[in-house]
Amino acid sequence: MTRHEPQTTSEAADGSVRRALLGVHSSKTGRIWCQRSGDERLALAISQRLGVPEIIGRILAGRSVPLEIAETYLDPTLRAALPDPSHLLDMDKAVERIVRAVRDREKVAVFGDYDVDGATASALMHRFLRALGLEVEVYIPDRQKEGYGPGIPAMLALASRGATLVITVDCGVSAFEPLAKAAEIGLDVIVCDHHEAQSGLPEACAVVNPKRLDETTDHTCLAAVGVAFLMAIGVNRALREANWYRDNGRDAPDLMSYLDLVALGTVCDMVPLVGVNRALVRQGLKVLAAGTNTGLQALMEVSKVRDIPGPFHLGFILGPRINAGGRVGEAGMGPALLACDDPVQALEMARHMEAWNSARKEIETEVLDQALEMAAAIPEDAPVIFVAGQGWHSGVVGIVASRLKERYFRPVCVVALEGGVGKGSGRSVKGIDLGRAVISASEAGLLEAGGGHAMAAGFTVMEPRLDAFRAFLEERILAQMAGAEDSGARVLEIDGVLDVRGACPDFTGQVERAGPYGVGNPEPVFAVANARVSRVDIVGMGHIRCFFSGAAGGSLKGMAFRSADSELGHALLNARGRTVHVAGILRPDTWGGRNGTQLLIEDLSWAD
């Protein structure tokens, strides 16, 4: 159970006075520990009205969930949350064009992106159109040779192979020249995207994107795979209304069976898990657990996922392996695996991805070490960590940017330079819309290409413009910081304080009820007070494993991933025999058939 602790006050980085839980106003990561803000009366009302444990009420109140929607928040359903596809601009145009392709038996090409969102959206469209009897070609560009999004050579190649309709997924909204060329040669294109749009739109039969500047939808946080799912629903409905299934002796595809793909892409693309996204992920996890997708089952087998899958497995185990194909292997294998129904072929592809993921880790470690050395020389007051390196593999810059963001709590851009061209990726923090800043730089002529969303962006920049681009980003981010509330980057928000005995499976199970957790619904962080470190060692690739015991009994395992060379890691390695306050995320520990709990360690402070 949670318990009340004495609090002291400390001055935060913005000059305000914050109450420090357990007296921790400068932890081993330099943060003040604060109780997550939330209306205590709201927490109590949620607990009483819904008949749920107090901690559930506190978690929801800490995320500003109103009392009137608390029930649907805890139990999100597609029936209540899923919008009518037709409310999106151009959706009806897209549906009409796809229905015509179905009726005329046209060859359709699906042009996707090489990340997980693009792979899942491509596989979903492939499965759906294939079930309608169409010949479908999936085209995923080579990250190194072609870069992001449609290119003119790809459009010409698809047309030459007989495609009459191209559906771009997770890309296309900024592909002005390639789509103009497609129109010139008579190739119809439907854009199905979710990235920030510019003031103009590319030439296409339809541009379906909840982030169009003229769009009025409330569902701006959909991942591309979510938009593709709505498009499939729209086409399916139109075919039903036209009696196409009856007239052609076909059963309608089971769209609900695609929800595991939707959940995977939604979690891995770091879009907020609020609103319809909560329902898509919650229901998608049920489909994934049922094991209907042959490719995903093969991937779970080779990656040794034995537990009931949750957002953690999607984001940190399955997703990286799908990504590895696009980063260091074959970009098209991810969508091919996710659309595969042959168990033997699926297992072979999954093994390839496992090998590529191992190779990706080695490349990532080399680039990360160099990037960390450069980042250490950047002034502490710089608004963005911006590093670039000759010969870096462009396939890992996004992961390295994520690692640096975790270390420095600031927006990060990492650029791989090769032959005078820089291919970069950025990751942002709460309150800073990096995607909008990158799009503005592109519109200002500083980039060859660029786009993204609030938390992540990608770009291509010529090396001579690198410094100008960096200065532009710094100016835009500083302006955003000046106009935004304190992002809390130097504050660790704590949802509750436990002792070691309280961090038990029953408590962890209660906390899981408020999931799925992710961006927009952060996983609860708990402080475990007065825990004695009985054992600590390094395992795997720089991970630290700890075992804690409590004065009132109980034991708890903790893991601090990729931390051996950090301040937190050094403190843990020197903590054996000491009593500490340790903060992190509680997860079930079912390794080896046990029914336990482990703490994913985020921070540490000496209890004495």
TrEMBL record:
Keywords: Exonuclease, Hydrolase, Nuclease. Belongs to the RecJ family. This is Single-stranded-DNA-specific exonuclease RecJ. It comes from the Bacteria. SUPFAM superfamilies: DHH phosphoesterases. Residues 384-477 form the DHHA1 domain. Residues 494-603 form the RecJ OB domain. The gene is recJ. Residues 107-266 form the DDH domain. It holds the Pfam family DHH. The keyword Hydrolase applies. GO terms for biological process: DNA recombination; DNA repair. One of its GO terms (molecular function) is nucleic acid binding. It comes from Phaeovibrio sulfidiphilus.
